[in-house]
Fold:
Amino acid sequence: MHNENLEDVGTTESRDSVKDRYNRPILSLRISLTNRCNLNCLYCHHDGMLPSDDEMTVDEIYKILKIAKKLGIRKIRYSGGEPLLRMDIVQIIEKTASLDFDDISITTNGILLGKYAEDLKDAGLKRVNVSFDSLNNEVYHRITSKNLLNYAKEGIIRAAEVGLNPVKINMVIMNDINNNEIKDMFEFSKEHNLVLQLIELIKSDSCEDNTFSDEHYFPLTPLEKDLEDIADKTQVRKFMQNRKKFFIDDGEIEIVRPVDNTNFCQNCTRLRLTPEGKLKPCLLINDNLVDIVTPIRQGKSDIEIEKLFLDGINKRKPFHEKVEE
Ligand code: SAM
Structure:
């Protein structure tokens, strides 16, 4: 078996990017476009976002993106809620692409991807991650509360057809629910040239049933060891919490583990923006958000908005301490 280290796009040359007080360059911005969703997944942690009905407009997003670009941010990822519920999603991608970031991606449940994939690709979207946990109608319904498996599946296939690359499947593995489907999902991924990301279930405070994650937790470490044995090649994604990527029979599998470690914080180069326009310095901290859209709405100058953006960066502090200040 062949092993190698892999450095991700835009993460190596951090010279020109603004850094936080812990010397961590800010290289990516994850923008949650809405808290609305058309699925209701059993395990969902809602990406750490609190409910809101006051979403940013395209122009407001564009203004913030211009500052992000100026400060050296390289990668933009749109998420939610379900980002494709935004009627102006194609326009948002178009505006983002006009600023020439290294990477633009979306995390979606894929239900509306059949409708939008081609327009999104034409607008400048590079790649897409689709949350898709089962190929079985009953299991899919149990997880999402909706009978929409075929929409998600067709959306995924369409995304690959129009040339979004890579199309990654995000599959959260749950014991006694879908842990027996990994092989089938890998076959489906190989058939359509997709990358399969297996995600370890994270305990979620927002789950109605708190026992859910205890009952259905499925550790991925043993599987990782098995994959290492059978893989033709393994790569370690150095700036992505040392995530492992396995190449097996012309297919790719990545393992994604939860974030509760100091290593995660040390390597964190990501800032978040909530749907209502607040910069969120850390995924796991909710009391230090910086409102950047209200001042835009009040007509504050670009310099003042940039100062607020820098305030958000200055508030970044590792949740799991160990990084030298
Ligand atoms: N609606 C979009 C989607 O379905 O991809 C974006 C939002 S969703 C919250 C973003 C990602 O978080 C998905 O890939 C989902 O699988 C993952 N996720 C949510 N809750 C999780 C949990 N408790 N454990 C592991 N992954 C989780």
Summary: The CA atoms of residues 262 and 271 lie 17 Å apart. Confidence is low (pLDDT under 50) at residues 6-13.
